[in-house]
């Protein structure tokens, strides 16, 4: 199955991807967070500079890059989250 | 009589008012208001002086992570009454305030512990990023050209 998700980029990942938002990205589902990250790397290879320390957020919940299996639906929000630096 | 406990989180492109944050947590039942203010420090990046910071946030998720943080604070320190955090977005120059947080409690112990936890957890979990803006190279180049013209 395929889901059309919205991908958001923040901080350094905006610079590396050249974009802040991609409204419809086709993603197989279910998918591991590792494979989802690989898919984003295929779209924007420079994102590999974030390899150490990046996490994803899916439906506004943090997801580390690894074996966790995600079930995505149309319109779900996926965000690329570089290391936080608020405060 | 039920006590309404409030958690307020605001992201603002305007300068922050410490008084506003303090006023929003004050309560007749609270003898203590604990406050933390984070300011933009003068520093160096790649040998150039830092002139300011640019903040951005994943806004809806920053709000939901803040809500979780408040639940965590209230679970650890039950006497905490009101919590308020204001954080800047956009350009903040050196010397300006980037974040103000205030927590009220009947007695000071819980509030003081909670405010320390609040800032460390905000930095760990709330999706906000800062970008260091050093003094621009064109700035430095212009200064160099001007000084050569004057010497000549």
From TrEMBL, chain A:
Claim: Cytoplasm is one of the keywords in the record: yes
Modified residues (1-thioglycine): 87
PTM text: C-terminal thiocarboxylation occurs in 2 steps, it is first acyl-adenylated (-COAMP) via the hesA/moeB/thiF part of MOCS3, then thiocarboxylated (-COSH) via the rhodanese domain of MOCS3.
Molecular function (Gene Ontology), one example: molybdopterin synthase activity
Glycyl adenylate modification, residue list: 87
Signal sequence annotation: none
Keywords, alphabetical: Cytoplasm, Molybdenum cofactor biosynthesis, Nucleotide-binding, Phosphoprotein
GO CC term, one of those recorded: molybdopterin synthase complex
Pathway recorded for this protein: Cofactor biosynthesis; molybdopterin biosynthesis
InterPro entries: Beta-grasp_dom_sf, MOCS2A, MOCS2A_euk, Mopterin_synth/thiamin_S_b, ThiS/MoaD-like
UniProt cross-references to Pfam families, sorted A to Z: ThiS (PF02597)
UniProt-annotated location(s): Cytoplasm, Cytosol
Entry keyword annotation includes Nucleotide-binding: yes
Function description: Acts as a sulfur carrier required for molybdopterin biosynthesis. Component of the molybdopterin synthase complex that catalyzes the conversion of precursor Z into molybdopterin by mediating the incorporation of 2 sulfur atoms into precursor Z to generate a dithiolene group. In the complex, serves as sulfur donor by being thiocarboxylated (-COSH) at its C-terminus by MOCS3. After interaction with MOCS2B, the sulfur is then transferred to precursor Z to form molybdopterin.
Complexes and interactors: Heterotetramer; composed of 2 small (MOCS2A) and 2 large (MOCS2B) subunits.
Note: This protein is produced by a bicistronic gene which also produces the large subunit (MOCS2B).
Record family assignment: Belongs to the MoaD family. MOCS2A subfamily.
PANTHER family referenced in this protein's UniProt entry, alphabetically: MOLYBDOPTERIN SYNTHASE SULFUR CARRIER SUBUNIT
Protein name stated in the entry: Molybdopterin synthase sulfur carrier subunit
Gene source species: Astatotilapia calliptera (Eastern happy)
Primary gene name: MOCS2
TrEMBL record, chain B:
Residues engaged in binding substrate: 107-108, 123
Gene3D superfamilies: Molybdopterin biosynthesis MoaE subunit (3.90.1170.40)
Enzyme class: transferase
Record CDD domains: MoaE (cd00756)
Entry superkingdom: Eukaryota
Main location: cytoplasm
Entry's EC annotation: 2.8.1.12
Cellular component GO terms, alphabetical: molybdopterin synthase complex
Catalytic reaction equation(s): 2 [molybdopterin-synthase sulfur-carrier protein]-C-terminal-Gly-aminoethanethioate + cyclic pyranopterin phosphate + H2O = molybdopterin + 2 [molybdopterin-synthase sulfur-carrier protein]-C-terminal Gly-Gly + 2 H(+)
Molecular function terms, GO-annotated: molybdopterin synthase activity
Localization: Cytoplasm, Cytosol
BP GO terms, sorted: Mo-molybdopterin cofactor biosynthetic process
Pathway in which the depicted protein is active: Cofactor biosynthesis; molybdopterin biosynthesis
Keyword Metal-binding in record: no
Keywords, sorted A to Z: Cytoplasm, Molybdenum cofactor biosynthesis, Transferase
Subunit structure comment from the entry: Heterotetramer; composed of 2 small (MOCS2A) and 2 large (MOCS2B) subunits.
Recorded family membership: Belongs to the MoaE family. MOCS2B subfamily.
Role noted for this protein: Catalytic subunit of the molybdopterin synthase complex, a complex that catalyzes the conversion of precursor Z into molybdopterin. Acts by mediating the incorporation of 2 sulfur atoms from thiocarboxylated MOCS2A into precursor Z to generate a dithiolene group.
Protein name: Molybdopterin synthase catalytic subunit
Organism: Astatotilapia calliptera
Name of the encoding gene: MOCS2
């Amino acid at each position: 199955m395929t889901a059309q998700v919205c991908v958001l980029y923040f901080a350094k990942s905006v610079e590396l991807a050249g974009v802040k938002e991609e409204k419809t990205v086709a993603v197989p589902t279910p998918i591991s967070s590792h494979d989802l990250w690989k898919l984003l790397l295929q779209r924007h290879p420079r994102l590999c500079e974030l390899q150490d320390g990046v996490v994803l957020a899916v439906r506004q919940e943090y997801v580390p890059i690894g074996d966790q299996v995600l079930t995505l639906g149309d319109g779900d929000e996926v965000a690329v989250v570089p290391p936080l630096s608020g405060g | 009589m039920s006590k309404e406990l409030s958690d307020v989180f605001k992201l603002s492109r305007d300068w922050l008012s410490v008084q506003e944050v303090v006023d929003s947590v004050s309560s007749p039942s609270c003898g203590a208001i604990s406050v933390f203010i984070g300011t933009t420090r003068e520093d160096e990046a790649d040998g150039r002086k830092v002139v300011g910071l640019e903040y951005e946030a994943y806004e809806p998720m920053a709000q939901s992570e803040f809500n979780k943080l408040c639940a965590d604070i209230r679970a650890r320190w039950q006497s905490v009454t009101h919590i308020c955090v204001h954080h800047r977005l956009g350009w903040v120059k050196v010397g300006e305030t980037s974040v103000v947080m205030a927590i009220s409690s009947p007695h000071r112990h819980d509030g003081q512990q909670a405010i320390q936890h609040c800032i460390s957890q905000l930095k760990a979990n709330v999706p906000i990023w800062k970008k260091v803006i050093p003094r621009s190279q064109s700035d430095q180049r212009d200064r160099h050209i001007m000084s050569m013209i004057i010497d000549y």
